[in-house]
Amino acid sequence: MTPAEQSRAARDIAARAPVIPVLVLDDVAHAAPLARALVAGGLPALEVTLRTPVALACIREMAKVPGGIVGAGTLLTPADVKAAKAAGAMFGVSPGATDTLIQACIDEDLPLLPGAATATEAMILLEKGYDMLKFFPAEASGGAPALKGIGAPIPQISFCPTGGVSPQNKASYLSLPNVVCVGGSWVAPKDMMDAGDWDGIEKLARDAQT
């Protein structure tokens, strides 16, 4: 899968809903009910970050949920890419991009949403064939005004801003012509997962689309 093909697939996934939940999971038992709640709430694309020991097991469980499109976030190495694909991930997300990570996604046929925070990084990825990127860390990198500024000279690149995106500022990102969706963790709070409040999470997912 070439970088251009990866970007087409990533754009299609990103366009399914205005928000991609960014999920940090500590308990495999939460994986399936969380996925069902988010999908039922209208958020089918799910990014499980590889930041906990159970992340890959959670991807395996979520991949079984009908209607879900489960991806792996925080891809840093080729080994991460291979493990994520083997666990059932349908796309990958990285905070940045390296040649070895890109090659691993080509080899594994895994659509990658690579991270960029500057115009130079975006141009380098565009040169490689990627035109659907993650803007990260969004708020720390200047927020919506910075992304609007990048979009003016490079309109052919689209973004999914992640990092500091919240219900309070998501509209400022989604109003930009170069933003397809945003990534955020607020739709799956740890306290609600621990309490098993899946109905509450489903409501948060619905609210996130307004």
What is the structure about, briefly put?
This protein is α/β, with parallel strands linked by helices and 210 residues long. It has helices at 3-14, 31-40, 55-62, 78-87, 99-108, 119-128, 143-151, 170-174, 190-195, 198-207, and strands spanning 19-23, 45-49, 69-73, 91-93, 112-113, 115-116, 132-135, 158-161, 182-184. The strands form 2 sheets. It has a 6-stranded parallel β-sheet, with helices on both faces.
Protein structure class: alpha/beta
Give the distance, in angstroms, between the N- and C-terminal Cα atoms.
Answer: 34 Å
Rounded mean pLDDT is 98
Q: How many beta-strand elements?
A: 9
Shape: globular
Trace the largest sheet across and list its strands: 5-4-3-2-1-9
Number of helices: 10
Query: What gyration radius follows from the Cα positions, in whole Å?
Result: 16 Å
**Topology as a string of helices (H) and strands (E):** HEHEHEHEHEEHEHEHEHH
β-strand percent reads: 15-25%
User: Unreliable segments (pLDDT under 50, ≥5 consecutive)?
Assistant: none
Question: What summary fits the major beta sheet?
Answer: 6 strands, parallel
Helical residue percent? 40-55%
